[in-house]
Write a structure and sequence with these properties.
The chain has helices spanning 5-9, 16-47, 50-76, 90-120, 128-155, 158-185, 191-218, 226-234, 268-286, 313-319, and strands spanning 241-250, 253-262, 291-298. The protein has 2 domains: 5-218, Alpha-lytic protease prodomain-like (Up-down Bundle), CATH 1.20.1510.10; 226-319, Alpha-Beta Plaits. The protein contains 10 helices and 3 strands, in the order ααααααααββαβα.
């Protein structure tokens, strides 16, 4: 059943199934991150490896990130209120930014530890257990990252995507730590400290990626080609022309506003049916949970002007 525009405009809460599933993913990942962080930090303290400890800090920050994510998704699932007319869905994106901040803090801590180790010249103890710990935790992190990335795509979650990227950086971090330990084992002085700086660079790059993606959401960037949207609008029954097409992505959903023109002699009831048809076309083109607001105008100047942001060939195709 296709609901009227006014009814749909009020349905801004996150679907309960999506919220529940994201929360479940974060809890599972939190437990695994705590176990991994404990193993790395424990062995890093025992062996004196700053690179291993840095890797453990990264995993511990993953756990904190999961906690922040749980708080963020809880807030994002709240319905609209007097202060947030469009709901709280962007809190999910803010939570992903908080993850990037945690990663940045970790970078600073790791760099400071590496510099101190370089100056003191302390050498870590490298044993077979060092590599066992790293390989096992790498396998766990790799599996978690792939699973979380798949869930992020399934539920269109900025938060899970950011957390998956954070966890994926752990795998690269562990690889560099293994390289550092091998360097120390064969007598390369300062290899452990040098590798910890590579660890910091890897984390910083992952944090930048999260910030970049979150900024697109917070600045109302659209992930959908506007030409695709305009084609969907113009092929709807009763639409003569369209303009003022705007789209943005937030909370796993796409929001579309558009002005359409119809026969000036059309009744209000029929014009409303045209608007409802436009909604259906856009939902078919973008996704069933797309939020659409359609403004109807008479098909006469100046309302028949073309859209300023969409290529003119869309209108040419319509006229063919």
């Amino acid at each position: 059943m296709v609901l009227p525009v006014a009814t749909r405009a009020m349905q801004h809460t996150l679907p309960a199934e999506r919220t529940t599933h994201i929360r479940h993913v974060l809890i599972v990942v939190l437990v695994l991150n705590v176990l991994v962080a404990g193993a790395k930090l424990g062995y890093g303290w025992y062996s004196g490896s700053v690179a291993m400890s840095a890797d453990g800090v990264q995993s511990l920050l993953d756990g904190f990130a999961n906690v922040i994510g749980l708080i963020g998704i809880a807030i994002a699932s709240r319905p609209p209120d007097r202060d947030h007319h469009y709901g709280h869905e962007r809190y999910e994106t803010l939570a992903s930014l908080a993850i990037a901040v945690l990663m940045t803090i970790g970078v600073v801590e790791i760099v400071e530890s590496a510099i101190v180790r370089w100056r003191t010249g302390e050498q870590p103890e490298v044993t077979t257990l060092s590599f066992v710990v790293l390989l096992v935790t790498m396998a766990i992190n790799g599996g978690v990252s792939l699973w979380e990335r798949a869930q992020a795509r399934k539920w269109s979650s900025d938060l899970l995507a950011a957390d998956a990227r954070h966890t994926a950086s752990d795998v690269l971090v562990s690889l560099t730590v293994i390289g550092g330990l091998i360097g120390e084992l064969i007598g390369l002085e300062g290899a452990d400290s040098a590798v910890s700086l590579l660890v910091a660079a890897t984390i910083a790059w992952a944090a930048w990626g999260i910030i970049r993606d979150a900024s697109r959401v917070l600045t109302d960037a659209s992930t959908t080609d506007p030409v695709v949207l305009m084609r969907a609008v113009l092929t709807s029954d009763g639409v003569v022309t369209a303009h003022n097409l705007r789209a943005r992505t937030s909370g796993g959903r796409t929001w579309v506003d558009v002005h359409v023109t119809v026969d000036p002699e059309m009744s209000v009831r029929d014009a409303h049916d045209v608007a409802t048809g436009v909604e259906g076309s856009l939902r078919t083109a973008v996704g069933s949970d797309t939020q659409v607001i359609v403004h109807v105008e008479p098909a006469e100047p100046p309302h028949t002007r073309p859209d300023a942001l969409v290529a003119i060939d869309v209108y040419d195709e319509r006229l063919v």
